[in-house]
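Reading a protein record of the kind used here takes only a little practice. The integers have meaning only within a learned vocabulary of local backbone shapes. With that in mind, consider the following protein and its fold in token form:
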Amino acid sequence: MTIRRWMMAAAATLAAALPLARAAAGPTLDGVRQRGVLACGVNVGVAGFSLPDSQGVWRGMDADLCRAVAAAVLGDPGKVRFVPLTAVQRFTALQSGEIDVLIRQTTLTLTRDTTLGLRMTTVNLYDGHGFMVRRDANITDPRQMDGMTICLSPGTTNELVTADFFRSNNLRFTPVLQERMQDNATSLQAGRCDAIGTDATQLAALRSQFQRPQDYVILPQRFSKEPYGPVVRRDDNEWFDVIRWLVMALIQAEELGVTQANAEELRRTSQNPEIRRLLGTDPLLGNALKLDPAWAYNAIRAVGNYGEIFERNLGPNTPIGLERGLNRLWTEGGLMYAWPMR
């Protein structure tokens, strides 16, 4: 065989092998499929995010995102094992393989993304640090909190943000560190601390569970940027892609007007190329992610688009009572923006 023919034969063999290489999924995606269930790390219990109801069913925005992943990967939103984790436990559980993905009010930061062997995927909620105090304390500005005892959760960005704020303003405070946010809520109501420092959405969630929520005030000032997002292990790029683009798909669905109620009809009738790609009539996106063409359709049918998830769990008509604010779509003055899905 001449050198030219040998090179042509080798090139043909390599070309034939490439589709097989592209079709191979990463270890986490393969593991979830083989196991038939997604292990999803969530908070131990915060209303609006992840909290079991009276029937033991996990409810909240984070719980819905876990179900969306299961629907996209396994075709069934019920195939989730919820793993409740404290702030201290969460990263170790992901690093050790106890969970497949962490969807638990986790702020995406540079050091977490570069030093833990983990990857921050994308933002699913924009938040900011704040303080909640008793109404009868007559506090309107955190600079009036000198000498207060503040309940915080260790291992969180809130612990650092609180310390930075008090130090920079030459104020004193006494921290009370408790892993469970519910313990901080109990301590505030019992008078063991004067305030809770954490992200504003969590403060609203905690207050909604109080016996007398009207007796507590969430101060309006914000002291940090707290972008929440799912976290995965660094060693699996395919799984990283699945989780990141799932969040994008839910935002894209809201941008395109695709809802839990109309997704089935639009999948049959829409001639919009973006909708056809999103819902799997055109298999381009599913093939790129090594998923069923209907991956995003299954997720939307299971939990709705991003706006539906927010309004159902955190919106003004819920006990949490939050306006969307920065979490509105970019076309409505917010920061939520899906990358082009093509």
Notes: The first strand starts at residue 38 and ends at 43. The chain has 14 helices and 14 strands.
